[in-house]
Amino acid sequence: MLLSWPTWAIHLFTVTEWAVAMGLLWRYGGLIQRRELQVFAVCMGPHLMSGLLILGFHLRGDTMHGLLDVSRLTSFGGSLLLLAATLAMVPMLGRWRSWVWLIVPLGLVWAVWTHWPLLGEHSAAVLRAANVAYLSFLLGLLWVYRTDRVLFSPLTIGGFWFLLVFVAVTIFTTRIAMVEWGLPSLSHADVLHGLSESLLSIANLLVALGVYRQIEARRKPGLFSNAKTGEDPSQ
């Protein structure tokens, strides 16, 4: 295997944290009786699957590139789902909220139509499209927070946004590994790989921790309140 045990541990933590965040969001949605938040939690599923596919890719010594290609497509679909689920929470859209789900099939049809067979360089283009969809989701998340601050905490939103740091650092470290050092991939530079992946782990941890604090604040009012102002920073 190309990855060291510490890097493997970081990968496993990353996937586990995302799964925990899904469960916590589902629980919090039920706690505040907001079904749309539970739908959002389900829409995080494709990104979890993408992470598992990446684990499989590394487990096979980075040789089964089909797993990587499918992971990129799954990530694209997941980002579209998160975008649609977020826009569906915006009251301002009114009756149009039910139509935002068309983003998902239309986006997937576009990917298949323009980048078939979705392998190799084509899958890399799909990954770039996934990043655009994810950025759109982040902007939608800010829109939701401005209209309804009960659904997501600043810490959770910050975690979703922190993923951009992971993407930027991964691009930078990949360039170092492949261009400067002449290695086949980032996986061959274990320290850089582990450093990059640790940022994703931090992002997922922030997402989960933000939701956990919201749940605890509901169960135990005042638990996270500021002693002077009485305000809950998680809200």
TrEMBL record:
KW Hydrolase (keyword) present? no
Parts of the chain that traverse the membrane: 6-25, 37-59, 71-92, 99-119, 125-145, 157-179, 191-212
Keyword annotations: Membrane, Transmembrane, Transmembrane helix
Q: InterPro entries from the xrefs?
A: DUF3593 (IPR021995), Uncharacterised_Ycf49 (IPR019634)
Q: Does the keyword Amino-acid biosynthesis apply?
A: no
Signal peptide residues on this chain, from the entry's feature table: none
Question: A Pfam family name for this chain?
Answer: DUF2499
Protein name per the record = DUF3593 domain-containing protein
This protein's superkingdom?
A: Bacteria
Organism this protein belongs to? Allochromatium vinosum (strain ATCC 17899 / DSM 180 / NBRC 103801 / NCIMB 10441 / D)
